[in-house]
């Protein structure tokens, strides 16, 4: 097994960045890299001698600023990747549902999973799914900005739930220090949207949630629509 | 593959707790559980319907208080486990080098790895090693209290380095959000104690490090010598 998979945590926004690499060819991808931990990530990629092919976002984040634009300045061959719904001009590749990217012998398969934002994507690599803010551990993303829709989120999570039960779930965040889950666990134990929650109940439940806006939203969203370049 | 392995992070002390279970028999163990995240851990164990067999410590921690005594009140069949050098009266099982505990079809094999403290243990489960504060990611434990010894730490880490290169390393802490490593990586890239660092240089380097004492040391060490019972 030559797949390297490293969850990397950013404390301020409780975000998980994921570095994946084929350790035979050294081709690598990074998902949801954060500006605050960019130097850590660069050091790690360089140390392992990886060829960073793709800098991938699950969506345009509202709670932190991506390091994608800056990372690309360090790893000039890398391509910035988002879902096509986002219409992000700074992206090199805009993915549609079912599109595939490869790194070494591994493939990343794109799933459109709108709901938290309209442009949210999830990504499947082998036995793993990276669910962004769509499916969280025992929870799910909020739907009250950036084209969010509880109806769409419900359908997207049902789509994720068609993956095999043993698929490991790696979300973009966890606020309680949990690092991963599985499709089986979320179907069984996710009280927001497990197998026994129907769409109407879910939508009504999500739409009732009142949360403060993320502190950085007015900075992070425009910055992230420019792949983090506005920080320069 | 029915091994569940879940790293669980505690933010205040940047500690990793590890829950492992055989998902066929539901027998489980927990390594380095922390008082602050006990409710999370209890909820998770209960939700999965696990039979917690062993509550295991890599060592008597100085930076946080273990939840082991309290966990045992919730999971009364569980045994508290430490390395025998600690002479901890509240432990049910004191392990020596090479001792084995089983949970379902899996085994945990104990390695004495003194140095950070004199009673430090590492634990091997399949392709994973749980190194406590002995071997950290690109770093290692300090040696300036609780019978610490840089000479012993060097030898202990060399012992850990005899594990296969592909063994995954799960430490008790990481302060930069990294979650895991491998024996190969630490041999190659650990500047404190990689393959090219000889014992004399390592000892002199470690003994020169000046760090403040952990904030909680005067509370945590006596509490942990009583398995966390002093909190009651």
Automatic annotation (TrEMBL), chains A, B:
Domain Metallo-beta-lactamase, which positions?
A: 14-173
Determine if Transit peptide is one of this entry's keywords: yes
Give the main EC class: hydrolase
Keyword Metal-binding in the entry? The reply is: yes
Q: Which cofactor does it need?
A: Fe(2+)
Q: Extract the GO molecular function terms from the UniProt entry.
A: hydroxyacylglutathione hydrolase activity; metal ion binding; sulfur dioxygenase activity
Q: What is its EC number?
A: 3.1.2.6
Q: What is this protein called?
A: Glyoxalase II
Species the sequence originates in: Vesicomyosocius okutanii subsp. Calyptogena okutanii (strain HA)
């Amino acid at each position: 097994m030559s797949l390297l998979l490293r969850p990397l945590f950013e404390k301020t926004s409780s975000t998980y960045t994921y570095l994946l690499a084929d350790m035979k060819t050294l081709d690598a991808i990074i998902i949801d890299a954060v500006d605050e931990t960019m130097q850590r990530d660069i050091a790690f990629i360089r140390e392992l001698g990886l060829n960073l092919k793709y800098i991938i976002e699950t969506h345009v984040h509202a709670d932190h600023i991506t390091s994608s634009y800056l990372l690309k300045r360090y790893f000039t061959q890398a391509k910035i990747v988002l879902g096509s719904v986002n219409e992000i001009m700074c992206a090199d590749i805009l993915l549609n549902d079912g599109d595939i990217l490869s790194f070494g012998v591994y493939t990343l398969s794109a799933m459109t999973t709108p709901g938290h934002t309209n442009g949210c994507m999830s990504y499947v690599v082998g036995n793993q799914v990276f669910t962004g803010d769509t499916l969280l551990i025992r929870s799910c993303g909020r739907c009250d900005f950036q084209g969010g829709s509880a109806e769409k989120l419900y359908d997207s999570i049902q789509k994720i739930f068609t993956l095999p039960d043993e698929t490991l779930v790696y979300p973009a965040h966890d606020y309680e220090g949990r690092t991963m889950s599985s499709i089986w666990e979320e179907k069984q134990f996710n009280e927001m949207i497990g197998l026994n929650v129907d769409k109407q109940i879910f939508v009504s439940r999500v739409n009732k949630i009142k949360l403060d806006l993320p502190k950085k939203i007015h900075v992070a969203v425009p910055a992230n629509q420019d792949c983090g370049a506005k920080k320069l």
